[in-house]
Specification:
Elements (H helix, E strand, L loop, with lengths): L4 H15 L14 E4 L2 E4 L25 E6 L5 H13 L7 E8 L4 H11 L4 E7 L2 H4 L21 H4 L6 E5 L3 E3 L3 H5 L9 E3 L1 E2 L10 H4 L2 H4 L9 E2 L3 E5 H7 L1 H15 L7 H8 L4 E2 L28 E3 L6 H6 L7 H4 L8
Parallel strand pairs: 3-4, 3-6, 4-5, 8-12
Antiparallel strand pairs: 1-2, 6-11, 7-13, 8-11, 9-10
Helix pairs in contact: 10-11
Length: about 350
């Protein structure tokens, strides 16, 4: 029996809604207003309000209020549709949407004002700030990788969050633009970074860690000794809980930049911004439940292929890889998992 796309969608959404709390479907059926901005047509997001038990935001300087949950993302025209869907999913599934502050990072050469106005138009009550990221500093350190999209300077902005965001913000959740959250982000925020841990992320120790670096690295004992005495595992930098206070004290931006300089000289890996993070933090990550990064849904870095969900509960879906759900939906050839992303899409053709 061949099932239609509509039937497949209903089946998948039924499963997801059974897995998430009641708060996750607040406002799901609300009818938004249509808005047209520039060349893109979006609908205005429903307005999400705090539950009664949410902490009251009372500081005069909002961004420094200790009751806020800080989320950092990049913002550009190419991935704007994904970023908007991600924000929408965060707001829809949390009990305290008004307590979330978004930090968007955009490149200096992007249409900064238009992007800012578009976010305001789609999310009128959203607390956010857009920061200008000067990509020149990192552009000279970027080496070509296996996929051109990974060479975008904005892909390295996560390395500079501690410098970009106000010093009073000591903790942030970093999210890639190709994710949706189907759980309350407060649960991710509340995860402890124990001891000297600076980053929390799901680890995948079954993956062959050695393949992320080439022979130039492993044959050089001066370089490979960075992992001596550690048990490093692969982790995906598209979803991270970051202690910016510890990051600033340890000057970890400079440490990552030094590895990028070595890469320029010796070519020790083939991917983009991930390997320097693994070199600095590998073996010293606060492991988080895998439910917080069901990654790889976009296929691998070279092939746009369909993937299925990993076994177990799901809190965050991540279309890392070449294929993006909005592209495949527009082409009329979506993967089944793309139909889980579609309800959060505020773009209208």
């Amino acid at each position: 029996m061949i099932l239609s796309k509509k039937v497949i969608f209903v089946i998948f959404m039924s499963i997801v809604l059974l897995l998430v709390p009641a708060s996750a479907i607040r406002g799901f059926l609300e009818e938004p207003n249509t808005k047209i901005d520039g060349y893109l047509r979006y609908v205005e997001s429903p307005e999400y309000r705090n539950s009664e038990e949410c902490p009251i935001i009372g500081s005069n300087y909002l961004i420094c209020d200790p009751n806020l949950i800080h989320v950092a993302m990049t913002l550009d025209s190419q991935y704007l549709r994904g970023s908007i869907a991600a924000v929408h999913s965060v707001l829809k599934h949390t009990y305290c949407p008004e307590n979330i502050y978004f930090h968007f990072v955009a490149t200096k050469d992007s249409d900064f004002q238009e992007l800012t106005q578009m976010v305001k138009s789609i999310f009128p009550s959203l607390s956010f700030k857009v920061y200008v990221f000067d990509g020149f500093r990192v552009k000279k350190l970027i080496s070509s990788s296996i996929r051109q999209a990974l060479d975008n300077p904005l892909n390295y902005a996560r390395t500079f969050l501690a410098e970009i965001i106000e010093p009073c913000v000591e903790r942030v959740i970093y999210l890639d633009s190709d994710v949706i959250i189907v759980d309350d982000i407060q649960k991710l925020w509340s995860i402890s970074l124990t001891g000297s841990r600076i980053i929390g992320a799901p680890e995948y120790c079954h993956a062959n860690f050695r393949t992320y670096f080439n022979d130039n690295f492993w044959s050089d004992t001066k370089l490979s000794k960075v992992f001596q005495g550690k048990k490093p595992c692969y982790f995906n930098t598209g979803v991270m809980v970051m202690d910016l206070g510890k990051w600033r004290k340890g000057d970890y931006t400079v440490k990552i930049e030094k590895w990028m300089e070595i890469q320029k000289e010796k070519r020790i890996y083939e991917l983009g911004s991930l390997p320097p993070f693994m070199l600095v933090f590998g073996g010293e990550i606060e492991g988080i439940d895998h439910r917080w990064n069901q990654h790889g849904l976009g296929g691998d870095n070279l092939v746009n292929s369909c993937r299925t969900l990993h076994p177990g509960p799901v809190s965050l879906l991540h279309w890392s890889g070449k294929g993006k759900p909005w592209v495949r939906l527009d082409q009329g050839n979506p993967c089944p998992v793309d139909l889980l992303w579609e309800p959060y899409d505020l773009y209208r053709v």
